[in-house]
Structures are given as C-alpha cells and as structure tokens.
Amino acid sequence: MPMIELVAADGHRLQGWRAGPENAAKALVLIQEIFGVNGHIRRLCEDFGAHGYAVIAPCLYDRIERGIELGYSAEEVARGRALKAKVDEHKTLLDALAAAAALPPGVPRGIVGYCWGGTVAWHGATRTSAFSAACGWYGGGIAAARNEVPRCPVQLHFGEADASIPMSDVEAIKAARPEVEVFVYPGAGHGFGCEERGSYSAPDALVARERTLQFFQKHLG
C-alpha cells in the first residue's frame, strides 16, 4: 500500500496516500472529502498520477483516529460530519502543508480538494504561499471565506442543485472574487464527481475533470 508518513509543523505524524511518478515534474496535494482517504479519493490520486503528477492525499482524520474510511450511507455521512467538526481547520492546513513538503522538491505544486477538501484547497490558496494553483470542487466553506484573497490562480466547481451550497453562496463568491474561475453545472448536486454517490453525474464529472486538468496544465506545466 503506497502510504507514507508525513510530519506536520506542530510535530503531528500522519499518513498520506502517495501516487504518481517519483520523478514527476509537477505535483499535487489532494484533499479528502469528509469520508477520509477512501477508495474514491485514492482513485482520484491514481488518475492524477496517470497524468504525470506526483500526488499525496494527507489523512486529515489521523489527528482523531487513524485508518478512517467511510462510505456514503446516511449513517456514514453523519459520522463524517461529526468527525470533521472535531478537526481544527488551522491544523488541517498544517497537514496539507506537510503533504506539500513531501512532494518532489523544486517542482510546481498545486492543491485540489473535494467537498470539505474544496474548502481546504481554498484555504491553501488564501492562507499560504505553498501552491502555484488551487482547485476546489463543491467546497461548502468557501463562501464564508470569500473575502480572503488567493495568492495563486483558483478554479472552483459547483453543482447548481447542491442542497448544501445554495446558488446565493456561489454568486457571493463570484461577486467577491471576480479573478477566480467559477464553473456551475446545471442540475448537478453535491458530490456530482463521486462515482459512489447517488448524486454522481458522469457527464458533469467528466467536464469538470477536463477543466481541472487543463487548469493545472496551464499553471503547473
């Protein structure tokens, strides 16, 4: 199993899933949903790895309990929300930075996140200078932090029918951050990019994936 150990700036040791070529010329930190570094997240890592990126997905729940992998039942959604509520967002960012530090040195680095991870990716862009580009898929906490100024190019993806992220939030992000590239997918719900969820929309996921790859190709090479 391609798990590696990471060390955050506060001394916390956590695991991270590693994918992609060892000698990659570009790199990504990939941030989990509230369900842990589960099969979906590992597949995303492998997909970016197949496109030439060195990728690390830090296990953000290791500060609470190691080895957490959840599915998408109502019970597991509730558990994921409860676990996330216990995690300090500032320490989450330390864990993302630990992953960034473990990527190949001297290559451009981006950050991409999904659900909770979309918000963490936003924080990575606005609260650190570690990344050359950031991409967030359906990050529910971005609107609340929309007045934070990104230090790198950012691309965001939202579903029009997302029950947890109203379009008023997306419009507020657009108004506050006109420099950010925002895509909205008509009729798509929350988690439309996850093949294991009932809200999965293969056509929208494919378009968003291609836009994401093109975005990182432009800014990371």
User: What is the name of the CATH superfamily?
Assistant: Alpha/Beta hydrolase fold, catalytic domain
What is the number of domains? 1
- Provide the CATH architecture: 3-Layer(aba) Sandwich
Helix content: 25-40%
CATH topology: Rossmann fold
Overall 3D shape: globular
Gap from first CA to last CA: 28 Å
Write a structural description.
- There is one protein chain.
- The chain has helices spanning 39-50, 74-85, 89-101, 116-127, 167-176, 202-220; strands spanning 3-7, 13-19, 26-31, 53-58, 109-114, 133-137, 154-159, 181-185.
- Helix 1 (39-50) links the parallel strand 3 and strand 4.
- It is globular.
- It is an alpha/beta fold.
- It has a single domain, classed as Rossmann fold (3-Layer(aba) Sandwich), CATH 3.40.50.1820.
- The chain is 35% helix and 21% strand.
- The protein has an 8-stranded mixed sheet, with helices on both faces.
- It has 6 helices and 8 strands.
